[in-house]
Amino acid sequence: MIGKSLEQVKLAISKVVKQIEAAGIVIKTTPKIEVQNIVASSDLGSKINLNSIAISLGLEKVEYEPEQFPGLVYRLDVPKVVVLLFGSGKLVCTGARKPEDVEIAVEKITQELRGAGLLP
């Protein structure tokens, strides 16, 4: 999936470069493309209790203010990503630099929630 997305990015950058050049601006180098932020979504497969998770995962890693935002924000140190967990069991992982970071983060969260008895 990443390869296809990267090809789409290259195509978009190529179009922008052509538009800039058509405006009379000379571009001397080929733009360097660097993946800096992968955003991915997943589903844990069952509903989850965000209040229990906020207490279980520890307040130093978690932000949960349901009056402000319906998701729980969980910051992992390794890999260094942020995961948004929702009561539906869906999650969004952001900040990953490689696909493996997303896989590790989702596996880590799944294990932590199962270990705490918060996910079947």
Characterize this entry briefly.
The chain has helices spanning 2-22, 50-57, 99-115; strands spanning 38-43, 62-63, 72-76, 81-85, 90-96. The chain has 120 residues and is of the alpha+beta class.
Tell me about this structure.
- By secondary structure, the chain is of the alpha+beta class.
- 38% of the residues lie in helices and 21% in strands.
- It is built from 3 helices and 5 strands.
- It has helices at residues 2-22, 50-57, 99-115; strands at 38-43, 62-63, 72-76, 81-85, 90-96.
- Strand 4 and strand 5 (90-96) form a beta hairpin.
- The chain is elongated and about 60 Å long.
- The protein starts with a helix and ends in a 5-residue tail after the last helix.
> What is the helical fraction, as a range of percent?
25-40%
Oligomer: single chain
Give the low-confidence spans.
none
Quick check: average pLDDT?
Answer: 90
> So what's the overall shape?
elongated
Class of secondary structure makeup: alpha+beta
Distance between the termini: 29 Å
Radius of gyration: 19 Å
Biggest pleated-sheet summary? 5 strands, antiparallel
